[in-house]
Prior knowledge:
Elements: E1 10-16, E2 20-27, E3 32-39, H1 47-61, E4 72-76, E5 79-81, E6 86-89, H2 101-109, E7 113-117, H3 118-129, E8 138-143, E9 147-153, E10 156-157, H4 195-205, H5 222-230, H6 234-258, E11 262-266, H7 273-287, H8 290-295, E12 297-300, H9 307-320
Parallel strand pairs: 1-4, 4-7, 8-11, 11-12
Antiparallel strand pairs: 1-2, 2-3, 5-6, 8-9, 9-10
Amino acid sequence: MSKLSEPKQHVLAADLGGTHLRVAVVNSCGQVVAQVKQPTPRDSTDPETIVRAILEAVERVSNGEYGKPAAASIVVPGAVDVDNAVVVQAPNLPSLTNFGLKSVLETRLGLSVVLENDANAAAVGEMWLGAARGCRDVVSVTLGTGLGGGIILNGVLWRGAHGSAGEIGHTTVDPLGGLKCKCGNSGCLELFASATAITRMTNAQRSEFPNTKLPPGDELTAEMVYDAGKAGDELALSVFRQFGMYLGIGLANLINLLDPEVIVIAGGVVNGWTMFEKVMHDQVNERSFRLAASRVRIVPAECGDNAGLLGAARLALDLCQ
């Protein structure tokens, strides 16, 4: 047995989200042996504030029981230039834009550090220990506040020529609708298949369903729409059908382009799977090449909130080989 394959081999994995920072010690079997979660400092314009928060979390999670980690990995919600080891853009954490987070952490931690996009890491986590185990061609779609994606081809994370591959949420599905995305484009998939999209579409359709019990305007959350849908609210069910239609269109485009073995759907919105699954599959079957559509598996993720952490750990372990 190699040293790397022994359970005593540990790495540090950090998932820096727009809302929460989670840091874990993970062994080479994928077991999270220690983990802390704390709020992400979002308001500061100084990246050092985030660096200090990461180091404090590492201090909280580390102890002598596991020994010195073999390496570390941090994943961030934004575009990453892996070759130059900088965060190119992080809309929810603007202080990190063009910041060399990798080199700073390597100096402060005394470890080799991997820097990666969070959705890419989630794809790696699901391929390692989740719904895509045993697969080599994988697409991961994360449905959260926005819509993120990760692509693995022939077992290798595909970052693209400039590091921005996998921006599935910013593929166009409604070019003539006039709805503007924060990226500057019109009609992006993220506008129709995300938690933000659910609340927007609910408010847009409200006048068609006067008997709904859902609150209006800014009071509304995607979780409320989900709960209402479970209770049979017709407005909520209509929104999830529309959600499934657009998601299916986006997935059909991916299938025709990439012909993956499996598409893993992750994120909190997956809780509403039974309300959008049929419409999603109907669109996939209608719009995809028949052979590919009949063979691809479209499944909910299995790693839950830990997908990004596990993917980060796998990337750090690979650094040790």
